[in-house]
Design goal:
By secondary structure, the protein is α/β, with parallel strands linked by helices. The chain folds into three domains: about 140 residues, Nucleic acid-binding proteins (OB fold (Dihydrolipoamide Acetyltransferase, E2P), Beta Barrel); about 140 residues, Rossmann fold; about 40 residues, no CATH class. It is about 45% helix and about 20% strand. It is built from ten helices and 14 strands. The strands form three sheets. The chain has a five-stranded mixed barrel. The protein has a five-stranded parallel β-sheet with strand order 7-6-8-9-10. A four-stranded antiparallel β-sheet has the order 12-11-13-14, with no helix packed on it. Helix 8 links the parallel strand 9 and strand 10.
Length: about 425
């Protein structure tokens, strides 16, 4: 096959390929040249690292095609991508390598991996891809650990690790915002609350709890509940059991930051007894399982009910104590009043006896005094009687039935009547002095 009409980079000069404008290649010829160059330049297996995508959606295919990506420092933008394939006969070997290293992963998308690959190109389609031959599990575990430490340091630097713990959980956390997928964790949590027979009100937001969509969906759920935070008492983020690698999806900076800044307490129960995720670290309270979170909320309300019962009994006891004291005071006052009344009665009886003994004497004295007063009054009346006065020589003169006491009442020629002690005299005024 003639190849002299192509120009390639200097490092491929050894292939002695020179472009000739007169030469026209068929597509298959050109793809064959490219295949020979690529595979010839990388004829042995190499190690490559990157982040997996599009693996999970092809997991049930015999041969799994996926992308290996390199992202920028913020892990937001893909800088470069290459297509990979894991052939069926290699699947079990890869799984075994991961299991032996203690890496149990149910979702591959989003994981950083180090893979041993063989570069191959297609003459038919003119593209190239990497054939997976082996995986380095320690790299994945190391990446997970390094990523975790970086996030924890960032949260400490921004004082976010304990921020949500400072939120006050309601004494009666009946209104719950639940973020999870509608699976086993959802039903375990809901069923446990139903069995409590308390009136819980659940606001459910469905979100992935692992995989590349988890961050976006959980943050969307937190934002949804942030907008109705006045209607809820707490947020619960939960999932079923899983491996350490599955749990690493919750070592997420954006999710942790949103939880730390959430205005209500956030509880987690992500189904793991031995390891604690960063999501657990920033949460107000972290429990091992969904049912443990439900039990925690139920116990919170039971504690309140118990306190109410304690206060009820204490009030009942204190009321009875006060009533007994009041009854004792009443009884002492009754006794005191009885003694005082008896004393008063005895004193009054003595007074009555004394009054009874002196009453005849007092009555007689009173009658004598009244008789004496009556005599004096009669004497005074007798003295004041006009007849007795006239008996001593005084008289009364009337003019037209009016008693004359002043000469100014009289005129010359007036006829007057003078009343004596015995008899009357009629006179005519001739002269007034």
């Amino acid at each position: 096959m003639m190849r002299e009409n192509l120009i390639f980079p200097k490092k491929l000069d050894s292939l002695n390929i020179i472009m000739n404008n007169q030469k026209t290649y068929r597509v298959f010829e050109l793809n064959s040249v490219i295949k020979d160059i690529l595979e010839g330049s990388c004829s042995y297996p190499i190690w490559i690292q990157g982040e997996i995508s599009d693996f999970d959606k092809n997991i049930n295919h015999q041969n799994i095609y996926f992308q290996l990506n390199e992202k920028d420092n913020n892990k937001d933008n893909i800088l470069s991508s290459i297509k990979c394939v894991l052939y069926e006969f290699k699947k079990e070997m890869i799984r075994m390598r991961l299991r032996e290293a203690g890496v149990k992963i149910t979702h591959m998308d989003g994981l950083n991996v180090r893979l041993r690959v063989q570069l191959t190109a297609s003459q038919r389609y003119g593209n190239y891809l990497l054939i997976i031959q082996d995986i380095d599990p320690s790299f994945t575990l190391g990446q997970i650990a390094r990523n975790r430490e970086e996030i924890i340091d960032w949260l400490k630097k921004h004082n976010l690790l304990d921020k949500n713990k400072k939120q006050n959980l309601s004494l009666l956390p009946f209104r719950i915002g639940l973020i999870t997928n509608e699976g086993e964790a959802y039903h375990d949590f809901i069923n446990r609350l139903i069995k409590s027979r308390f009136g819980f009100k659940i606001y459910f937001y469905q979100a992935s709890v692992q995989g590349p969509n988890m961050e976006k969906e959980i943050i969307a759920g937190l934002n949804y509940f942030r907008n109705i935070s006045d209607e809820i008492d707490t947020i619960v983020i939960t999932r079923g059991g899983g491996s350490s690698a599955d749990l690493s999806w919750f070592d997420n900076r954006m999710i942790s930051e949103n939880i730390a800044n959430f205005p209500k307490p956030v509880l987690t129960g992500i189904g793991h007894f031995t390891n604690i995720s960063i999501t657990d670290l920033v949460a107000h309270q972290s429990l091992a399982t969904p049912t443990a979170v439900a039990d925690y909320l139920i116990q919170k309300i039971n504690d309140f009910v118990s306190r109410l019962e304690y206060y009820r009994q204490e009030i009942y006891y204190q009321n009875n104590l006060i009533i007994r004291k009041i009854n004792q005071i009443i009884e002492s006052y009754k006794l005191l009043l009885k003694n005082q009344a008896q004393g008063i009665c005895r004193q009054k009886k003595d007074d009555l006896k004394r009054i009874k003994s002196i009453l005849p004497e007092l009555s007689q004295k009173f009658l004598n005094d009244q008789k004496e007063n009556h005599s004096i009054t009669l004497n005074q009346l007798a003295i004041l009687d006009p007849k007795n006065i006239m008996r001593r020589g005084f008289s009364i003169t009337r003019l037209n039935k009016q008693i004359v006491i002043n000469v100014d009442q009289l005129s010359k020629g007036d006829n007057v009547t003078t009343i004596l002690y015995q008899g009357k005299i009629s006179s005519k005024i001739n002269k007034i002095n």
